[in-house]
Amino acid sequence: MRILITNDDGINAPGLEVLAEIATELAGPRGEVWTVAPAFEQSGVAHSISYTHPTMIARLAERRYAAEGSPADCVLAAVADVMAETPPDLVLSGVNRGNNAGENAMYSGTIGGAMEAALQGLPAIALSQYLGPETADLADPFETARRHGAAVIRRLLDHGDWTSDEDFRLFYNVNFPPVPASAVKGVRVAPQGRRQGTRFGAVPFTAPNGRRFMWVSGGSQLAPAREGSDVAVNMAGFVSVTPMRADLTCHLSLERLAQALDGEPGANRHKEEVSGT
Questions:
Q1: For residue 86, how far is the Cα from the chain centroid?
Q2: Any known ligand binding at 217?
Q3: Number of domains present in the structure of the chain
Q4: What range defines the domain where residue 159 resides?
Q5: Which residues hold a divalent metal cation (predicted)?
Q6: Residue 96 annotated as binding?
Q7: What is the CATH classification number for the domain harbouring 165?
Q8: Are 98 and 221 in contact (CB under 8 A)?
Q9: Residues 90, 96, 102, 105: what is their CA dihedral angle, to the nearest 10 degrees?
Q10: Has residue 212 been placed in a domain?
């Protein structure tokens, strides 16, 4: 198996070393692990691409490259250049330092890399390590992902939906819980949730030169979310697996909205005025 790994924490991030270990185990002695990762940290860039300026790509070692761009840029660099003649069989993005469950998924460069791989027609999995009070004193904060990562991916490869005939190919978001590896209770397939009573915000400040800036602030990662969601199962000690795709359509609303709006602009309003309803 030929595996491409990337991340959003940067080429020197410890989570990428963990992912390289996982990928090497999965690829086997006859496989290959290729790295194309951001030269600098790209946390929070989501699925952005460097559309308006070029991205420099540097070869650091055999099968190891750094790109001055986002995780999605890195996947594009691999597909179009670095691995153009030998495309990957699987793309893994992570292991992110911190969770990408709940609303975090919308901002995550880790997920952005996996999403771009799926858009390129490649099987892809994003992996993140939830941190919390129980992981704070661990010698290796990634021990849960390190110990359980390969097994979870193997199960996904065996049982996940990897068909590529849909408009938007599925990819998978995996979050390892904020507990020691020995305390993991199992795996749960869960929908994306949202933490209650917390959200991202901004903190403005004035620099010594009088200019105004802001820092983006995150909300509590320990806030509760609805039962059965990725956040909830992670907090309960389970690895969460969430199938995703690059389709933001709210399919539940399509039929109802179509009944109200389909047709000529203003048609339904005119009908209501004529009928007096």
A1: 24
A2: no
A3: 1
A4: 2-196+223-250
A5: 8-9, 43, 96
A6: yes
A7: 3.40.1210.10
A8: yes
A9: -60
A10: no
